[in-house]
Amino acid sequence: MTVKDGKRWNHNIHYHPHILRAVPDGAQCALDIGCGEGMLARALRQAVPHVTGIDLDATSIGQAREYPDDVDYLLGDFLTHPFEPASFDVIASVATLHHMDAATGLARMRDLLRPGGVLAIVGLARSTMPNDLPRDLAGVVVGTLHRAAKGRWQHPSPTVWPPPVTYPQMRALATEILPGSEYRRHLLLRYSIIWRKPQD
Questions:
Q1: Which domain holds residue 37?
Q2: Which own/partner contact pairs does 174-182 have at CB distance under 8 Å and 24+ positions apart?
Q3: Which family does the UniProt entry place this protein in (predicted)?
Q4: Residue 141 resides in a domain
Q5: Is 150 domain-assigned?
Q6: Backbone phi, then psi, for 48, in 5-degree steps?
């Protein structure tokens, strides 16, 4: 991670440490799906020798390639890119699943992960009212305090709003496609999924 990276903050960056803590010991190859301009990929590279970042946005990939690192940045769609099945020890995805059919994305991530590897996701889902109103209001307040203290970095990648899948729907998909996964709802309008692929 560069000094420039260390000064950035937004709701997604806030949960990068949650991803990094999930990296298993001895991991050799990592994939960052929807890597944007590469901030998380560069952080992963501090722990994993071989890191690949992939994103559909040419502007973001162009910015990522300007950094003096040895991360392999690919312009393309991870759903169709010819990665070898079961070829990554770590797969990370932040704010990406809501850009695609979530079930298809989760299944593809599962298939690209080696047995014993870890999938770590932070994502956005759609709130349901009025049930989610108290939590969302609390998240807005806490997010406002963070921005006041740290500022807010606006990433260059395209955005999708509102997310097509609700939080309960996302949890159900994780349970179905990634049995045994750990799903958590986070305060700053995000959820996470951590899953270790069973050994064969």
A1: 3-126+155-196
A2: 174/106, 177/103, 177/106, 177/107, 177/110, 178/106, 178/110, 178/119, 181/119
A3: Belongs to the methyltransferase superfamily.
A4: no
A5: no
A6: -125, 130
**CATH code, domain with 76:** 3.40.50.150
DSSP reduced 3-state for 112: helix
| pLDDT tens, position by position, 58-68 | 999 999 999 99
pLDDT at residue number 146:
62
CB 57 within 8 A of CB 78: no
Residue 131: pLDDT band with limits 50, 70, 90? confident
Q: In degrees, to the nearest 5, what angle opens at C-alpha 188 toward C-alphas 184 and 190?
A: 45
Asked whether the whole model's pTM tops 0.85, one would answer yes
If one counts the domains in the chain, the total is: 1
Give the Cα separation of 46 and 43 in Å (integer): 5
Q: Is residue 71 part of a domain?
A: yes
